[in-house]
Every structure is written in C-alpha cells, then in structure tokens.
Write a structure and sequence with these properties.
The complex is a heterodimer. Chain A is of the alpha+beta class. Chain A is built from five helices and four strands, in the order βαβαααβαβ. Chain B is built from 15 helices and no strands. Classes of the chains: A alpha+beta, B mainly alpha.
C-alpha cells in the first residue's frame, strides 16, 4: 500500500493551529509544519520545548573568554617587554581581548548550534515542500494510504485549508 | 499597516529585485568611477610614500583616522536598530532593520580600509596579526591599537553573520519565486530553509542571542575606538568621558545615515506603505535624544577642562572654539546639537524634505566632530613650539571620495540584488497587528 504525503495549506495561523490539534487526535502522523513567520501558537500546539541552542552559545562564549586571555598572555610572554611600567601579563587590558573573543566565539557557537540542531543544508529539506509556505501559507505535512486520502483532505478542508498531494 | 498583507509585502520587496534600468547602472558606474579615483590615489601613495598625504609632525593623524572613526560610527546604528531595538520590541524598527544592518556591514568594511591606508607600508599589515613568523615578534595586546584590531574584526564578523542569518527566510522566499540560475544561487544561499517548525524554534532563539551579544559588542567597539585616543596623554583626548561620548556620537551619526539612505530608497522602490512616515519620525525622535547626549558631552568636556584648572587642557579647548579650526568646531556644534532640535517640531520631523536635509547636516557635523577631536588635539598640545596646522591633500581627498563611493556602491548593488526590507519581520508585524503605522 503506497503512502501518500499530503499537505494542508492554510491562509490563517489559527486555521493551521486548529488543524494541528485535530490531526494530533487522529491516527494520521504529523510530519512537520511550515510557516512564513515564527508562530508561538503553532509551537504551543505542537508542544515544542525551548531550543537548546543556548548551550552551544554558552560553550562558545566560555571557550572564547579563555582563548582571548590565552592569546594575549601567550603573545606577551613570547616577548617579555615591560610597557608603560605595566606587568608583562597585565590582566586588566587583556579583559578587552577576552571580552571580544567571548562575543565572537559565542556567536560561532550560536550559529553552529542552529546549523546542527535545525538540520539546515539537507537536500531532503525541499522534498514534499510547497514554495508558497515561504510566502503567505501555513503548511502541515501528513501522510496516509491512498484510501484515506479523502479523509485527510476533509480534515484540512474542515479547518479552512486546501490540500496538496506529493508523490 | 492594515492595508498590508503577506503577499503584498512579498510583491513590493520582490519587485525591487527585477532587472535594473539604465539609470541604475549609470549610478553604479559613477560610483565605480569614484572608487577608481580613490584606489588610484591610494596606489599613488603606496608607490610614492605616505608623505603625499598632508599628515606630518605634530598632526600625524589626519583624514584617514577621521574617516575611520566616521565610518565605524556610521556602522553603529545598524546594530542599534537591529539588535537593541529588537530587544526592546520596538515595532518601528522592522521596516528599516535590514537596510540598517547592511549599512553596518558596508560601513565597517569601508572603515576597515583606513588603518591599511594610514599604515603607509600596507604590505606590513600582518605585523598586527598574532601569527608565528621568523621575526618571533608578536603583537602586544596592551596597546589600544591592538584592542582595535580585535574589536573591529569581531564586529565585522558578528555583524556580517547577524545580517546573513537574519536574511535566511527571505533568501528562501526569493528561491521559491525565482527560476533558472537565480534559483540555483538562492537555493545555495538559503541553506535549505523551509520555515519548518524545527528551524523556527532554533532560529528565533539564535536571533535573540545574536541581538543580546551584539548589544554589548557594539558598545565595546566604539569604546575601544575612543580609547585609541583616550589612552594617550594628549590634551583633549585623555578623558574618561570618551567611551560613552563616542558611542552616543556613533549612534547619532548612524541614525542620520539611516535617514539619508532610507528616504531615497523609500521613494525609488515605492516603499511608502512599508517605511511609513511614522518610522522615519521615530528615527528623528531618536536623533533628538542622541543629539542631546552629544551636546551634553560637548559641554561636559568644557566643564572638565575648566574645573581641572589644567592650563594645557583649558587652552586646547579654548583654541578649538576660537583658533584656526574654529569653523570646524562651530559646524560640529550647530549641526550635531542645534539643528536636530528642529525635530522637536512635528511638522519638521514628518516632512520628508526636512528629514533628508537634516540627516545630511548631521552627517557633515559628525564628520567635523572627528576632525575637531583629532586635529584639534594633536595640532595644539603641550609645547607651543610644537604646535602645527594640517590640511588634507588632494590624495587624501581622493581617498575620501573613494571611501564614500565604495560605501554607496556596495549599498546600491545590495538594494537591487538582495531584499532591502525584511519580508519576514514585516509579516510578523502584520501578524501581531502592532503596526508601525499606527
């Protein structure tokens, strides 16, 4: 029995949220949703937890802090020249280097976190995807057998959506 | 705002990416010509020597450093608008955030050229990088100039990544409406973005972190630039007020540049329904605020000089207002602190012509502020026998023309090839109904 991927496309966020609720109570799976804007209502309806990307950011920041200090201390010790009567390893000015590296590495961590967690750059991202979802429509992707196709379409239509089938 | 729908926003922004007219390419050509003039001047300087610039003892820091500080300053309001106002949930920032972020990236690129130009022997620039070489000589991170290298390169990296990440959903929108080679390019650029809930879940969080990290960064960067001066013992520079004074001035000039860029952009691309008068008015109100801070800083400098009873300090500030460069000082005071007060009148801050005119005046004033700070101190420091004057040469003028041309060249290319208004953030504004137009 061939599985059909069916996407419900909604003009209104609330319609999509209602359809998600109904779909979750049905036997049909909810593979993913697409939306042109971030939606708290959809996140709540899907029961999503907060992103853990902040851990990447934090790790990046901590690494950056120590890297900045280590770099400044290392370069100072390579040429032990006393400048303006300050100690060779002068921690106060090195705070600036440490601070800038903290921000820089935290941003790298932030970005790596997103790339890893949201699985961007996968070719299959664009499979079973309707390009209108980046424009004005909210999409909900589900799947069913050929026989159940009509029932799934009815569910989407009941909530004000149109249906698109993928092979 | 109520007239806007998701599809109208897309249509308005995507229309700007259609093939450009002959007039557009003429502007691009003229700006490229300006860049060529600047590049030729720089080449001439490289082959002849730094002496072709007007800088000499005692004024060894001239227009190159003035332009460096000017462009770093311009860069700051992009981050103010995209990061700080994002944290404050100021809805009016959404229509102009993208263009302001772009302005930041290009202004930092332009600013970054000036230390290279000022260096004279530009091929020795790698001395500033912490890399192992046969010289076994490493940079000393106790120097404020090395703080600058770290701060500016961090700022360029962070603001470029912030700009690109913020554009991902819009790049995906272009991919979904494009065809042929263009589709392939935007497929690569959009990194497989589909607006999936998992993507939004992480994206919204990293955007928040980007904003939260860019905010202290932007404050640190211009503080570090100010310490290039304040950590020297030159009268007029050696003051603790410099960091906040520079940050406020940077945002002041950057906001003025936002108006200078947004007003023609709005007209040319028919963005009137997106970049409403209310948005421009909000920028104008912020300019009043930053102008008052800058005015307060000018006054405080004089107060500190008088209160210290330091003869050299008092003489430097007296000379600034009455000496050879008094014209620069008064241009600075009038353009940066008095003219923006006109924005207190609603009629003026809602008039496009006034907004544009005043934004240009503030830009001029802020350039002269850097002139007064830099030349006004080194030209007239401790010893009367070491006093001296400075005037930029044609080579410096050419390089300055080149820098302005480069900035506008990059911006003009950007507005026709990438979305100059964030479609996603505009849609969010529409969805939330927190109209900037109301």
């Amino acid at each position: 029995m061939a599985t059909k991927y069916v996407m419900g496309l909604f003009k209104q966020e609330d319609q999509a949220v209602a359809a998600i609720g109904e779909l979750k109570e049905s036997a049909w799976p909810l593979h993913r949703t697409h939306s042109p804007i971030p939606s708290h209502k959809i996140s709540t309806a899907l029961g999503l937890k907060d992103s853990r990307v902040g851990w990447f950011t934090l790790c990046g920041g901590i690494l950056g802090f120590f890297t900045g200090f280590a770099l400044a201390i290392f370069t100072a010790l390579r040429w032990e020249l006393i400048v303006s009567g300050k100690p060779v390893v002068a921690l106060v000015p090195f705070i600036i280097v440490g601070f800038e590296f903290t921000i820089l590495f935290a941003i790298f961590g932030n970005l790596i976190g997103m790339l890893v967690l949201s699985r961007l750059s996968r070719p299959e991202n664009l499979e079973n995807y309707d390009p209108r979802c980046s424009g004005e429509l909210f999409g909900i992707l589900s799947s069913c057998s050929d026989e159940e196709k009509e029932g799934l379409s009815t569910l989407f239509a009941r909530n004000g959506g149109e249906t698109r089938e993928f092979e | 705002m109520t007239e806007l729908t998701f599809s109208k926003i897309d249509q308005t922004v995507l229309d700007t990416l259609r093939p450009a007219s002959g007039r557009y390419w003429l502007v691009v050509f003229l700006l490229a010509l300006g860049i060529m003039i600047g590049a030729s001047c720089w080449l001439y300087q490289i082959f002849t020597g730094i002496g072709v610039a007007g800088m000499n003892i005692p004024v060894a820091w001239g227009t190159y450093l003035i332009n460096f500080v000017f462009w770093v300053g311009i860069a700051h309001s992009g981050t103010l608008i995209s990061a700080i106002l994002h944290l404050f949930r100021a809805g009016w920032r959404n229509p102009i955030a993208r263009a302001a972020e772009t302005m930041t990236v290009f202004a930092v690129c332009t600013a970054g050229l000036f230390p290279f130009i000022h260096l004279g022997r530009v091929w020795l620039v790698y001395y500033m990088l912490p890399i192992p070489t046969q010289r076994t000589l490493w940079p000393n991170f106790q120097s404020p100039l090395m703080f600058d290298v770290v701060a500016i390169s961090t700022y360029l990296t962070v603001s470029s990544l912030f700009w690109y990440t913020g554009m991902l959903p819009d790049l995906a929108r272009i991919r979904d409406t494009a065809e042929g080679v263009r589709k392939k390019i935007f497929t690569a650029l959009s990194l497989g973005w589909t607006g999936e809930h998992e993507q939004w879940r992480h994206y919204t969080r990293i955007y928040l972190f980007f904003a939260a990290l860019a905010t202290p960064l932007v404050i640190s960067v211009h503080s570090v630039v100010s310490w290039d001066f304040a950590l020297g013992i030159v009268p007029g520079w050696h003051t603790t007020i410099f960091a906040p004074y520079f940050v406020a001035g940077a945002i002041h000039s950057g906001l003025a540049m936002v108006l200078t860029l947004m007003i023609p952009l709005r007209k040319i691309f028919s963005y009137e329904k997106i970049i409403t008068v209310h948005v421009l008015e909000s920028v104008a109100k912020t300019i009043i605020f930053t102008g008052l801070i800058v005015g307060f800083a000018y006054g405080t400098e004089y107060f500190i000089a008088w209160y210290s009873h330091n003869m050299v300090e008092m003489d430097t500030f007296s000379w600034r207002a009455t000496g050879d460069y008094a014209y620069g000082f008064w241009i600075m005071v009038v353009c940066n602190t008095m003219v923006p007060l006109l924005f207190f009148f609603k009629k003026i801050r809602t008039s496009i012509a006034w907004l544009f005119g005043i934004s240009i005046i503030v830009n001029i004033g802020m350039w002269f502020e850097r002139f007064v700070i830099i030349i006004g101190s080194v030209g007239h420091d401790f010893l009367p026998n070491a006093w001296g004057l400075y005037a930029p040469t044609l080579v410096e003028m050419g390089i300055m023309l080149g820098s302005f041309s480069l900035f506008f060249f990059l911006f003009v290319l950007f507005v026709k090839h990438l979305p100059s208004v964030s479609m996603t953030e505009m849609k969010e504004s529409v969805a939330e109904g927190e109209g900037h137009g109301h």
